[in-house]
Amino acid sequence: MHEKEIIVKNWLPRYTGTAIEEFGKYILLTNFHTYVHKFANRFGVPVRGMDRPMQTATNKQGLTIINFGIGSANAATIMDLLTAVKPEGVLFLGKCGGIKKSTEIGHFILPMAAIRGEGTSNDYVPPEVPAMPSFKLHKFVSEKIVQAGLEYRTGVVYTTNRRVWEHDEPFRARLTQLRVIGIDMETATLFSVGLVNEIARGALLLVSDVPMTPEGVKTEESDKNVTAKYVDLHLEIGIEAMTELGTKGEKIKHFHY
């Protein structure tokens, strides 16, 4: 158990309750068990790992969805563990807070980059390395959004380890100075660790709150409303994009330095 390949092949089933051979080559990541159960109900497949930290479901087309939990530490863990299956593409279906006034609840964001404010990614790459998605994967996802007749936003998101910051005026002012479009807790980590592990990765973020205003801070009631109105659409776009990527998408290559 001193080699990474051996460790991840042992730990991925341990964390998920899912055998290596049951994982598909295309992966949807989420922070919420609701997405996994909706996916499983749609395709009539079981949910694995209900007694484990992470839950999964895989359809017959070879698409797997994983609830890896919340936060950058979990994001790094799943991107390391996925090297056990060497996926062809990974898309994160996450929620984020909208920072700019033009970003409203229900909008979709395809981040062109993420600012590494979480610190976890520093264990993988130097601070100067930008956290970026795989362009060809995002290009394909954007095409699916347009085909559905929907709009989306692009821009830079800020990833932080802080969950309770909405009251912190200096922190809020800093977000404004950074000109970011949204804030979350995982995207920069997923991009950075995906780069190190040579995994094609992307993120389709759903704006679930607008925390720069007191009335826009997420509550249990507001989160339920967002889930009811937008989660099915969010999941549907992810399913369509990652299902067709394998047959219609451009080959994603990895460059070695």
Structure description:
The chain is of the alpha/beta class and 257 residues long. The protein has a single domain, classed as Rossmann fold (3-Layer(aba) Sandwich), CATH 3.40.50. The protein is built from seven helices and eight strands, in the order H-E-H-E-E-H-E-E-H-E-H-E-H-E-H. Helix 5 links the parallel strand 6 and strand 7. The longest helix has 29 residues, at 220-248. The chain is globular, with a radius of gyration of 17 Å.
Largest sheet: 5 strands, mixed, barrel
CATH architecture: 3-Layer(aba) Sandwich
Average pLDDT reading: 93
- Could you tell me the strand content as a percent range? 15-25%
Oligomer: single chain
Report helical residue fraction.
25-40%
Structural category is alpha/beta
Tally of individual helices: 7
**Secondary structure: number of strands:** 8
Radius of gyration: 17 Å
Question: What layout of secondary structure does this protein have?
Answer:
Layout: H1 4-16, E1 26-30, H2 33-43, E2 55-58, E3 63-67, H3 72-81, E4 89-98, E5 108-117, H4 135-147, E6 153-160, H5 169-178, E7 182-184, H6 187-196, E8 201-209, H7 220-248
Parallel strand pairs: 1-3, 1-4, 4-8, 5-6, 6-7
Antiparallel strand pairs: 2-3, 4-7, 5-8
Overview in brief:
By secondary structure, the protein is an alpha/beta fold. Helices cover 37% and strands 21% of the residues. The model has no long low-confidence stretch (mean pLDDT 93).
What attributes does this structure have?
257 residues; alpha/beta; five-stranded mixed barrel; globular; 8 strands; Rossmann fold; single chain
